[in-house]
Specification:
Layout: H1 12-21, H2 27-40, H3 45-52, H4 56-69, H5 86-99, E1 106-107, H6 108-119, H7 125-134, E2 139-141, E3 156-158
Antiparallel strand pairs: 1-3, 2-3
Helix pairs in contact: 1-2, 2-3, 2-4, 3-4, 5-6
């Protein structure tokens, strides 16, 4: 048997704030606001959860948060803990290394070893590749001899 209908009530000002929040660029904030708006329209937690990819218990938790703290309780909060700086350190070091004359091409393992030697930061090749790609420093596939077979995982070189 289903429980009682949602007993949330909101002022016109809060309803407007919820509609604005539902168009937020932060997807989680927008989903939280939509969940409350749909609850006010009489949608069930199961239906709302299915629409935004959340369990019905999560929808009930959002309703409870909203009833305690209003629209501000639905907003995203800053992440706690130490800010991530390792990736920035690696990129700064990689930029210096890649701009130096001398070694015209770098493989990811060589670049990773050089970053560790110079900056003291060890990083996996997968994460190094991701950081370089996001920073548009580029990963260039190593040239193969004509007629050579392609490997499943080609050797990659970094730089120009």
């Amino acid at each position: 048997m289903r429980g009682p209908k949602c007993k949330l009530t909101v002022s016109a000002e809060d309803q407007l704030a919820l509609k604005r929040l539902s168009r937020s660029s932060n997807r989680q904030e927008a989903d939280r606001a939509r969940a409350i708006l749909w609850s006010l329209e009489g949608q069930t937690g199961v239906m709302i959860g299915a629409a935004i990819g959340m369990h019905a218990d999560g929808v009930r938790r959002l309703r409870h948060l909203f009833s305690l703290g209003g629209v501000d309780a639905l907003r995203a909060r800053p992440r706690t803990g130490r800010p991530a700086t390792r990736g920035e350190t690696v990129l700064a070091c990689a930029r210096v290394i890649l701009c130096e004359p001398g070694q015209p091409r770098w493989t990811l393992p060589l670049l990773g070893a050089e970053i560790e030697r110079r900056c003291g930061v060890r990083i996996s090749m997968a994460w190094l590749s991701t950081l370089l790609r996001k920073a548009s420093l580029g990963v260039v596939p190593e040239a193969r001899a004509p007629g050579a077979k392609a490997n499943k995982r080609p050797n990659t070189r970094v730089g120009g």
